[in-house]
Design goal:
Belongs to the bacterial PQQ dehydrogenase family. The protein is of the alpha+beta class. The chain has a domain of about 130 residues. About 15% of the residues lie in helices and about 25% in strands. The protein contains ten helices and 40 strands. The strands form eleven sheets. The chain has a five-stranded mixed sheet, with no helix packed on it. A hairpin with a 5-residue loop joins strand 15 and strand 16. The radius of gyration is 29 Å and the shape is globular. The chain starts with 7 loop residues before the first helix and ends with a strand.
Length: about 800
């Protein structure tokens, strides 16, 4: 260094920074090497330590030593992860930035020419690699879905037309609209036409994980929504103005506040119109005396599926909305006025706690909308995970759509008896539940149940044979009787919370020129299981693959697990997949990875702590998929986040410790172990695994060699999830909770990403065509409909999500093309 021109303090401070970085890497790197990890961090740490000490002593060799470390780091990084920009950033970016600083005259003046040359070469090599990543990176899969029209006419039950009459568009759950006004060519002209605020926001006594996942319905010339606190509203579809609103005044169920709720949400309401069935919905007139016949009485003599004569509810509420509430009620409202249908149930509602036994406040209620058929309204319920071994039953109940009387119940803990229980009887405690939306094929007379698990999720030694048979799968019940027609399990002896989380999609598939009645079940573990919805037989092959063994003492693991040949599974994690913002936290993530048990997917939970990848947020969650029956294509938004599951022996858990939250310590009262769960994060609070953490992907169901993933792209940015709220929109690919809706116009919409945008994509290529900034997190599934003005509207709920950490809000927003 030129001591006359350069102050000693900048050199010493920079040297101290390099020295500390080197010592950190050297210490951690030595520990990592002894754990069987990479030797790089030890070697690089030693070189940086020597370089920093040399610089502090203001000797000539500092730049050359640092340049050698940077050059070696760049070569090592490319060897380890190739030209993956986001993998290279934590390995090279910080050192490259320090190298650039060292080349400034303040530090380089007076240094040896050889040292400057070596460092310059190293910096140029690092920058050259950065440029090369933009050309050579192959993280995305480029392709195009050609589209193949079915050999026969479309099934109208699988297509939403001008209206959006059910949660998934129709009871088939395709999330597909026949509207085609918005296209890839004109989507850039989409503009916001109205927005409202419902007034239902998080309150001091609200659960910490309040969220509004509502997908509105558009039918009966109204737009129907629900809010987090189970309020129902009817809006004018063209203006968003409130036509009526209903507040069920949700009870805290004996608690002082809502803090015991694991979460509070409403995914949607259900619409029923008596005119949809038969002439005016009535296939027989009143008798000669003018008596009105109760639907349940008629059904009891016709195996539950005969259309009744006129009922009082049909007269009072020919069109009705069914609203599930967070205090375990089902309320019937007049769809025109919002008033209670008082002849349904007791004063317009059904108490869903009946025959359930003890219920902790928030421990049981229906987060997803019910499904309706000609004569039945059917629903299940959320049960709090990992609270105890004595939780409410997962029973599925079918009520008469007119009177509210219970017609049948199917309890997976008592699966052969569907006769309604008598007063005082209790459904099987802790039996597997269904919390996701159902689907229905009324022509086949079947309702499809995406099954959950018996809790606790990570301890299964005490499960019954029926628990083992029906959990984490798909069950088809006879609509008339509630009896099981067929069942298929997707996870054997599930210890990872891999319950079936999404609405099954009913679609007629073109298989070798023949239309096959199929059902597609998205799952957390990444498989898309495709079955014949009439028989339960495989349409796409499913393999039984070997699974890791060795559960905690007292439990066991299944030797194999089913895996569909149509899947979006990520590769198994390795040490080189660990990530971070700097070399230090990346090294710490590699140390953490080595400290945990991981043998690939289905690594059993352990005392040591096991990596669950994909984690229980899933590749797919309640947001599901959208299926285009014309193009025979699927639009998906898979997530990829690793979680850690650690079993805690009961004697190490204090009484009352733990919470109903989906992360942290969960008590599992009554089981020999509690469980500690959470995402695999670095010390900076970002995922330890490298991005992408969320994609969009397209599946061609009519591909020549069978269904195939044709395109795949990183989706979303860090715009709203950077440390210190720095609005830096890095396109790493972020998780999404909120499903897609696709249209005949060739455009798919998705709003659930961590950044606050709703986006439009070309379904054939996955190209992002349009986006609009949202005022809060859009963790909901959009929908689309045609207004009376002839325009196609797109509507999304922006309510935020407590667990996801997005901004909370109470917005409903509509978009459309400009008026002609």
């Amino acid at each position: 260094m030129d001591r006359k021109r350069a102050s000693k303090w900048p050199a010493r401070l920079l040297g101290l920074l390099i020295l500390l970085l080197g010592l950190s890497l050297m210490g951690g790197g030595g520990y990592l090497l002894m754990s069987g990890g990479s030797a790089y961090y030890l070697l690089a740490g030693a070189g940086l330590t020597l370089s920093g000490a040399t610089m502090m002593a203001r000797r000539h060799g500092a730049l050359g030593l640092f340049g050698l470390v940077l050059l070696g780091t760049t070569l090592w990084a490319v060897w380890e992860v190739g030209f993956d920009w986001w993998q290279l950033v934590p390995r090279v970016a910080l050192l490259c930035a320090i190298g650039l600083i060292m080349l400034l005259p303040w530090w380089s003046r007076g240094a040896s020419r050889g040292g400057v040359a070596i460092l310059s070469l190293a910096v140029l090599a690092a920058l050259g690699v950065a440029v090369a990543t933009q050309v050579l990176e192959t993280g995305d899969l480029e392709g195009e879905i050609a589209g193949q029209a079915p050999a026969v006419a479309l099934n109208p039950a699988q297509v939403a037309a001008e209206d959006w009459v059910a949660y998934g568009g129709t009871n088939a759950g395709t999330h597909y609209s026949a509207l085609e006004q918005i296209t890839p060519q004109n989507i850039s002209q989409l503009e916001e036409v109205w927005r409202i605020q419902t007034g239902d926001t998080a309150q001091p006594d609200s659960p910490p994980e309040i969220t509004n996942q509502n997908t509105p319905l558009k039918v009966n010339d109204l737009l129907y929504i629900c809010t987090s606190h189970s309020r129902a509203m009817a809006l004018d579809p063209q203006t968003g103005e409130t036509v009526w609103s209903f507040d069920p005044e949700v009870s805290t169920m004996g608690a002082e506040d809502f803090s015991l709720w694991a979460h509070m949400t409403c995914r949607g309401v259900t619409y029923y119109d008596v005119a949809s069935y038969g002439e005016n919905g009535i296939e027989a007139a009143p008798d000669a005396e003018g008596n009105i016949i109760d639907a349940a009485e008629s059904a009891s003599s016709h195996e539950g599926d005969a259309a009744p004569m006129v009922s009082e509810t049909d007269v009072m509420c020919p069109r009705r909305i069914f609203l599930p509430t967070a205090d375990a009620r089902l309320i019937a409202l007049n769809a025109d006025t919002g008033e209670r249908c008082t002849t349904f149930g007791e004063d317009g509602e059904i108490d869903l706690t009946r025959n359930m036994g003890p219920i902790v406040p928030g421990g049981y209620y229906s987060t997803s909308p019910a499904v309706v058929t000609e004569n039945l309204v059917i629903l299940g319920g959320h049960v709090t995970d990992n609270s105890s071994v004595d939780e409410p039953s997962g029973v599925i109940r079918a009520f008469d759509v007119r009177s509210g009387k219970l017609v049948w119940n199917w309890d997976s803990g008592n699966p052969t008896s569907t006769t309604p229980l008598s007063e005082g009887e209790i459904y099987t405690r802790n039996s597997p539940n269904v919390w996701a939306p159902f689907s229905v094929d009324e022509d086949l007379g079947l309702v499809y149940l995406p099954m959950g698990n018996a809790t606790p999720d990570q301890w299964g030694a005490d499960r019954s044979e029926d628990d083992e048979r029906y959990s984490a799968g798909l069950v088809a019940l006879d609509l008339a009787t509630g009896n099981v027609e067929w069942a298929y399990q997707f996870v054997h002896h599930d210890l990872w919370d891999m319950d079936s989380p999404a609405q099954p999609v009913l679609i007629d598939l073109n298989v070798d020129g023949q239309m096959v009645p199929a059902v597609i079940q998205p799952t957390k573990q990444g498989s898309l299981y495709v079955l014949n919805r009439e028989t339960g037989e495989e349409v796409v092959p499913i393999d039984e693959v070997p699974a890791p063994q060795g559960a905690v003492e007292g439990d066991w693991t299944a030797p194999t697990q089913p895996r569909s040949q149509l899947n979006l599974l990520p590769p198994p994690l390795t040490g080189r997949d660990m990530w971070g913002g700097t070399p230090v936290d990346q090294m710490l993530c590699r140390i953490k990875f080595k400290s945990l048990r991981y043998e690939g997917q289905y690594t059993p939970p352990s005392l040591q702590g096991s990596i669950v990848y994909p984690g229980n947020v899933g590749v797919f969650n309640w947001s599901g998929i959208a299926v285009d029956p014309v193009r025979q294509a699927i639009f998906t938004s898979p997530n990829y986040l690793a979680f850690v599951s650690r079993m805690i022996p009961r004697d190490q858990v204090a009484e009352g410790e733990g919470s109903a939250s989906e992360q942290g310590l969960q008590p599992n009262e009554g089981a020999p172990y509690a469980v500690e769960m959470g995402p695999l994060l670095s010390v900076l609070g970002i995922p330890c695994q490298a991005p992408p953490w969320g994609d969009v992907a397209g599946v061609d169901l009519a591909a020549q060699d069978g269904p195939d993933v044709v395109w795949r792209h990183r989706n979303g940015t860090t715009r709203d999830s950077m440390p210190f709220n720095i609005p830096l929109p890095l396109k790493v690919g972020v998780p999404a909770l909120g499903g897609p809706v696709t249209t005949a116009g060739g455009v798919t919409f998705l709003s659930g990403t961590l950044d606050q945008y709703i986006r439009g994509y070309d379904i054939t290529t996955g190209e992002e065509l349009w986006k609009s900034r949202l005022p809060a997190g859009g963790q909901a599934t959009p929908m689309t409909y045609q207004g009376q003005d002839g325009r196609q509207y797109l509507v999304v709920t922006a309510g935020g999500h407590g667990t996801f950490g997005t901004r909370m809000g109470d917005y409903v927003i509509a978009y459309a093309l400009p008026e002609a």
